[in-house]
Amino acid sequence: MNKNRLEAFSDGVLAIIITIMVLEFKLPDGANSDALKPLLPKFLSYILSFIYIGIYWNNHHHMMHTVNQVNGKILWANLHLLFWLSLIPFATAWNGENHFAPFPMMLYGIILLMNGVAYYILQQLILKHHGKDSLLSKALGKDYKGKSSPLFYLIAVLFANYYPIVSGSIYIFVALMWLVPDKRIERIFNRE
């Protein structure tokens, strides 16, 4: 099967996810800068989640450039990833509304963890479908970032009930780790 519909559908879902997140913002009560202060936790939560959605969109886009064809398993794995990504607006709103309270921070981490697991499953099915000599296989190499991210999320989830600030710092750290552009796939395309 051609991959174009998978890419178009994924792009559309990610655009809707970002739209849902921004629609959570309500107009401030008042017309001065003090009226914006109560929105700060929501805005900070939105920024982090927007960055995460952007990271997933960017990496998904790059990964799909290595794919020639998809099968049913890849389509379902992609839907699995989109499911977990679609929960980010809920966790984002809940975190912002409750000023990063322990349980919302834990749930946010669980959702990030499941996004990482879902992405890994999709990646593995693509590797299986295209073989060990595929462009994606060559580009990933040892994939330290991909393997360490779920571990960081798990640590953050465990800290959330006691030290939500530590959890938040870990979520930011992982986002920054992925925000640094990953040139592995681009390098492989330039070599091929």
From TrEMBL:
The chemistry this enzyme catalyses reads: K(+)(in) = K(+)(out)
Provide the membrane topology annotation. Answer: Multi-pass membrane protein
Where in or outside the cell?
Membrane
Q: Which UniProt keywords apply?
A: Ion channel, Ion transport, Membrane, Potassium, Potassium channel, Potassium transport, Transmembrane, Transmembrane helix, Transport
TM regions (residue ranges): 9-27, 39-58, 74-94, 100-122, 151-180
- Tell me its family: Belongs to the TMEM175 family.
Q: What is this protein called?
A: TMEM175 family protein
Source organism per UniProt: Flavobacterium paronense
